[in-house]
Amino acid sequence: MPPGLDNLKHIVVLMMENRSFDHMLGSLKAGDARIDGLTGNESNPDTTGAPVKVAPLAEFQSQLDPDPDHHFPAVDLQIFGGDTSPTRVANMQGFVKSYFNQQRDASHSGKIMYYFPKEKLPVLTTLATEFAVFNGWFSSIPGPTICNRAFAHYGTSFGQVSMDLFYVKEPYKSVYERLIAANPAHTAKIYYYDPSSSTMEIVNLLQHQPQLFATYDQFLADCKSGTLPDYCFVEPNYNDHDGDTGELIASDQHPDHNVQAGELFIASVYNAIKQNPTLWQNTALLIVYDEHGGIYDHVPPPACTPDGFVASGSDTGTGAEFKFDRLGVRVPAILVSPWVPKGTVVSGRVFEHASIPATATEHFIGDYDQRSPREKVADTFLDLLSLSTMRTDAPDFDV
After folding, report:
1. What whole-number distance in Å separates Cα of residue 297 and Cα of residue 299?
2. Which pLDDT tens digits describe the chain residue by residue (399 residues)?
3. Which label site among 91, 309, 325, 398 has the fewest CB atoms less than 10 Å from its CB?
4. 3-21+118-384 belongs to CATH 3.55.40.20
5. 256 vs 65: CA distance, rounded Å
């Protein structure tokens, strides 16, 4: 076993909000052809049929307002371009049409094709090029936040494709419950930003408060003291609000929140781990986004193993049932560890949010049968910690 994997004691997942791969990392293809980003020639038709090309004109805030629609019917339009026939094929040609529906403004709808030049996202793009970037990490379903995040915690959304609150169905337990009940027991925690920001996992897990929950300040303290749990999930600040030190700006990067605030938050999580030398050498940090937020990506989502549930046509809002047999739109995902070779580009493999509990369960527990069919076959990512000697050239961020 490679020493980085043999000594791995902590897995940290930071899940941000509602940005597509091409929107955030598509510019990296110009510097590394292995990265499946943008050539600059990709386009979508507008409502008149005229092509709207991608452009490196994304702004940090005040551009994607109103929020692009990312509920199931809208994502269906984005992926299939409006084709509802039984033989349809994903073509990723409906993003501009979908955004037009938000305010019926043809000029504004083209902004859904904008992406960031790498210089505007120095934290995210540096980590992507310094460590491992995934060409094929997809949201788990073509729908919104809550159900996609459920796959990160449970390996399924229990048949949900909407933002409705849901309740866990037996026999599937969250990855946190699996770990703390294991023999030997492991520690696990969700760090939400603060009480005002709260957490999106409140419905099914809050009964375990405070065992499974703590604030972001506690995450920083735990990193400093070396008491980080074996597995933890970090949530950004979901809303602008007043805190003890003044106004706190939303850092989740959900449109139309400030993307730079998210950059600083990502850097703060990375720094907290890296500044403790012992923690740095035995931790793997996954930075990933829950779903694409209605923003353009050029890669059609692949088919996948169903998770055993079916959403009705009324639940999907399209009139057609969904068998959880295809993935949602591609999102940014980066694995950070001093045991990952610099410039790793993960190609030819498909990952999705069920890969998160699959990886943590495999590493900390081993064989564990009470999991969804989707999670059981989900690819895991710790093999990327392949170096025989720990790197000493990791970047620093001054935040």
Report:
1. 6
2. 789 899 999 999 999 999 999 999 999 999 999 999 999 999 999 999 999 999 999 999 999 999 999 999 999 999 999 999 989 999 999 999 999 999 999 999 999 999 999 999 999 999 999 999 999 999 999 999 999 999 999 999 999 998 877 667 778 899 998 999 999 999 999 999 887 777 666 555 555 556 788 899 999 999 999 999 999 999 999 998 988 778 899 999 999 999 999 999 999 999 999 999 999 999 999 999 999 999 999 999 999 999 999 999 999 999 999 999 999 999 999 999 999 999 999 999 999 999 999 999 999 999 999 999 999 999 999 999 999 999 999 999 987
3. 398
4. no
5. 6
